[in-house]
């Protein structure tokens, strides 16, 4: 199913930077090499204001909260901006606990950031099994500085069945930032619905088994009663 077909099924409304104690928070991490624009992506996701310059890269970990409404259900996003320096990747096991969505970012003008994608992917698979994975080629406004083709990004995505989405973007020029936000919201909404359906199916199965067991016991009692006569 294409993004446009996905999108047509949902009504998505950005609420803004907000935290509500009683709401479930969904952890989203943004990872990738130092300087690929992770912090700028996060600021653009959380603000409708124009960005006229890139934000200074995060030196450790920065955590923010915002909310979106999907089909009238509020989803609270707990988004982690993870520094791309080796010093902090040593703490990956703690950073990757309970991750709902992982966004791996490279910059189209930084070949090394693309070459390192497999490192980030492998850490995800080791420490955060079951998370939804997006791959973003950032800074596609810098076409004259391009070092990574779109085919290389697509090739990496197609090498792994569990990378759900890939597209290029520019946080600085606001290209595909709405698309990224909507995909985050839709993925969390769909994950919730699947969990809800799985729980309902498990409950139905349990009820059916109990009924069958009760029926069998009833039939057994009837047979026993017949034998006594």
**How does CATH name the architecture?**
3-Layer(aba) Sandwich
> Quick one: CATH superfamily?
P-loop containing nucleotide triphosphate hydrolases
- What oligomeric state do these chains adopt? single chain
Q: Provide the number of structural domains.
A: 1
Distance between the termini: 65 Å
Mean pLDDT: 82
The count of helical stretches stands at: 8
Strands, count: 7
CATH classification, class level: Alpha Beta
Query: Uncertain spans, ≥5 residues at pLDDT below 50?
Result: none
Percentage beta strand: 15-25%
Level of helix content?
40-55%
Radius of gyration equals: 23 Å
Q: Give the overall shape, derived from the CA principal axes.
A: globular
Largest sheet, order of strands side by side? 1-3-4-2-5-6-7
Quick one: biggest sheet? Answer: 7 strands, mixed
Would you write up a description of this structure?
With 229 residues, the chain is of the alpha/beta class. It is 44% helix and 24% strand. The chain has one domain: 3-Layer(aba) Sandwich (Rossmann fold). α7 links the parallel β6 and β7. The mean pLDDT is 82.
For this entry, give a set of tags.
alpha/beta; Rossmann fold; globular
Describe the structure concisely.
The protein is of the alpha/beta class and 229 residues long. It has eight helices and seven strands; from the N terminus they run H-E-E-H-E-E-H-H-E-H-H-E-H-E-H. The chain has a single domain (3-195), classed as 3-Layer(aba) Sandwich (Rossmann fold), CATH 3.40.50.300.
């Amino acid at each position: 199913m294409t993004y446009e077909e996905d999108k047509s099924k949902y009504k998505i409304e950005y609420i803004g930077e907000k935290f509500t104690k009683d709401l479930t928070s969904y952890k989203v991490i943004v990872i990738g090499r130092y300087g690929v624009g992770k912090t700028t992506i996060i600021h653009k996701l959380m603000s409708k204001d124009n960005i006229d310059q890139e934000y200074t890269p995060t030196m450790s970990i920065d955590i923010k909260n915002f909310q979106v409404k999907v089909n009238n259900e509020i989803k609270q996003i707990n988004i982690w901006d993870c520094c791309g320096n080796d010093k902090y990747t040593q703490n990956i096991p703690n950073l990757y606990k309970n991750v709902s969505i992982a966004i791996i970012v490279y910059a189209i003008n930084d070949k090394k950031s693309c070459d390192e994608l497999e490192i980030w992917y492998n850490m995800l698979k080791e420490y955060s099994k079951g998370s939804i994975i997006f791959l973003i080629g950032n800074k596609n406004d810098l076409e004259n500085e391009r070092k990574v083709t779109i085919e290389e990004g697509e090739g990496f995505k197609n090498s792994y069945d569990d990378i759900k989405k890939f597209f290029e973007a520019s946080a600085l020029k606001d290209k595909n930032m709405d698309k990224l936000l909507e995909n985050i919201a839709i993925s969390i909404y769909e994950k919730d619905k699947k969990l809800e359906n799985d729980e309902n199916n498990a409950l139905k199965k349990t009820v059916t088994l109990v009924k069958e067991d009760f029926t069998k016991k009833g039939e057994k009692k009837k047979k026993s009663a017949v034998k006594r006569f």
